[in-house]
Amino acid sequence: MSQSNTSHSCQERMAERYTPRCLQKSAAPIEADAFHDTFLPDPSAVARMRDSTAAFLRRFGLTGPVASSVVLVVSELVTNAITHGHGEVGLAIRVADGTISVSVTDENTAPAVLKEAGPNDLSGRGMALVEAYSDRWGSNGEETWCEFRNAGIAA
């Protein structure tokens, strides 16, 4: 019986760890226009971050093509950080003045780079998708970011 309680306690801690901060109950005030989460570099986190991003954007009534583009780019940036980064991965999304800003961080100091993948390459297209779908993007190593301007969200 004690083993079950210990396991349950561990599961509760893991659930809390992977619950996005905008959904966690906390004594600290939560910014209504921002979403932040930090997670271990586990491939299963990609789907959680896509779902969390879509839920966050729905709070602004954004469900169409722009929301789909933001979710796709978040998926690519998070996958890139998990695949090529080091340490914990952070995702931050902010809505301000009609612009959606996305930032993904990890502890790798090498910046994300745009590559030209060949037709038979299984990977290497992520940053090309970020460039194609966002209005601007950049990487300084530990942070890769992008912006979606005039995203159809009231300022």
TrEMBL record:
GO terms for molecular function: ATP binding. Residues 41-139 form the Histidine kinase/HSP90-like ATPase domain. Keywords: ATP-binding, Kinase, Nucleotide-binding, Serine/threonine-protein kinase, Transferase. The keyword NADP does not apply. The keyword ATP-binding applies. SUPFAM superfamilies: ATPase domain of HSP90 chaperone/DNA topoisomerase II/histidine kinase (SSF55874). It comes from the Bacteria. InterPro entries: Anti-sigma-factor_SerPK (IPR050267), HATPase_C_sf (IPR036890), HATPase_dom (IPR003594). Pfam families: HATPase_c_2. Transmembrane segments: none annotated. This is ATP-binding protein. It comes from Streptomyces luteolus.
